[in-house]
Amino acid sequence: MARKESITIQMILDTAFEMTREDGFHTVTARKVAAKAGCSTQPIFRVYKNMDELWNAIYLRGVDYFHEYYEQFAGQGTAPFSNLGMAYISFARQEKHLFRLLFLTENAAKKSMYELLNGKKGMVVTEINKAAAMGCTNPSLLFMKMWIFIHGAACMSLSGDFDLSDAETLDLLERSYNDFAGRV
Fold first, then answer.
1. How remote is the C-alpha of 124 from its chain's centroid?
2. Which end of the chain is more exposed for a tag (fewer CB within 10 A), N or C?
């Protein structure tokens, strides 16, 4: 009778993903994952041919995690891009290590930031269409202006330089949208 596998690919990925969330992507090594999962490195390399394959799986799991986070984010803004911006900034505040992995490092999946944000459900396209429906003549340019502001605020939150409350951040995003929309 074959021996039952006690360490599964899901357990390895779950362990490595949680390590990334807690301590950062740079902490994920085969030995550390094995120690945390309570096994040797053998099961890791039985299911992943090398660490690059595991790291890529962590990255893709992070992308899915961000999209789930965005879908569950309770948006309160009325201006296009404001809820996307709030979710992104909030993600940077709450998931610092995942944010760094997804949006501040070169990714193995070779996805652009636009692809990461837009996702399968077209989150960015939806916001661009909202801006067009509200009379914006160049909603793609407006998105770029908003995105520079949003990404900057999110990055500042990582270093502790962005200490506005959620209400102040939402107000700033909506004012920025109105200012930018008037100039596009």
1. 14
2. N
Tell me how far apart the alpha carbons of residues 81 and 130 are, in angstroms, rounded to a whole number: 9
- 75, 83 contact by CB (below 8 A): yes
Which class is domain 1-48?
mainly alpha
Q: What tokens appear for 122 in the block?
A: 């077209």
Convert the pLDDT of each residue in 122-140 to its tens digit. Answer: 999 999 999 999 999 999 9
DSSP 77-143: --STTHHHHHHHHHHHHH-HHHHHHHHSS--TT---HHHHHHTTTTHHHHHHHHHHHTT-S-HHHHH
Q: Give the span between the Cα atoms of 165 and 109, in whole angstroms.
A: 34
Return the ∠ at Cα 26 (arms to 33 and 51), rounded to 5°: 55
Residue 83 CB-density burial (10 A; 0-12 exposed, 13-18 middle, 19+ buried): buried
> Is residue 176 pLDDT above 60, yes or no?
yes
